[in-house]
Amino acid sequence: MESVKDWVDALYLQYSPKMVAVAMRAGFTIEEAEDLTQEAFLLFLTKAPTLQEDHRSPGGYLFVTLRNLIGDALRRRWRRKTLSYGEVPDKGKDDAYFTSLRDVLPPELDEQDREILIAYYGDQIGYEELSKRLGIPVERCRVRVFRAKNRCRRLLENQENFSGLETKGPSETIRGIGGDPNASR
């Protein structure tokens, strides 16, 4: 019976080109695809002796592991980048075309809610870093962001409802466009 190392080397020569191709089709560069394949084989090495003894499908294990690694890598790409206080870049000049989040938030919003929303959405600080800044557990931080978002949404909806009170009634609208409100339909 061949050694585990020789068996894994033979599997690497057999499956690695296909695995790199699969990772590249998922949107990774050649270097990233090779890294994912290498990581899948490193994980495979931990299970190789039992897989060799049980005569299980090594290719199936390798491709399922690669699929899971690809999913993890894609989720990491989509997550927000968090920065510590020392890494926060200089704000620079204000943008002349777009207003800041601070200007868009309703003035009636509590200052604590305003700061949480600006940190989370404007500065794109994740829950972990925000919980460290506030000195609270991550779960409580998630709840605070959720509640601040809901309070802000309610205030914005109330602003829209109050602006809707000034609209004209149907008869005023019809007169304004030249129709007769008393005409039969």
Short description:
This protein has about 180 residues and is mainly alpha-helical. The protein is about 70% helix and about 0% strand.
Entry keywords:
mainly alpha; 185 residues
Write the layout of secondary structure elements.
Blueprint: H1 4-25, H2 30-54, H3 58-78, H4 101-104, H5 111-122, H6 127-134, H7 138-164, H8 170-176
Helix pairs in contact: 1-2, 1-3, 2-3, 5-7, 6-7
Low-pLDDT segments: none
* Approximate helicity band: 55-70%
Q: Measured on Cα atoms, how large is the radius of gyration?
A: 29 Å
Beta-strand fraction estimate: under 5%
Helix/sheet category:
mainly alpha
Helix-strand topology string: HHHHHHHH
Mean pLDDT across every amino acid position? 80
Biggest sheet, open or closed, and with what strands and sense? none
**Alpha-carbon distance between the two ends:** 94 Å
Report on the architecture of this protein:
By secondary structure, this protein is mostly helical. The chain contains 8 helices and no strands. The protein has helices at residues 4-25, 30-54, 58-78, 101-104, 111-122, 127-134, 138-164, 170-176. α6 (127-134) crosses α7. The N and C termini lie far apart (94 Å). The mean pLDDT is 80.
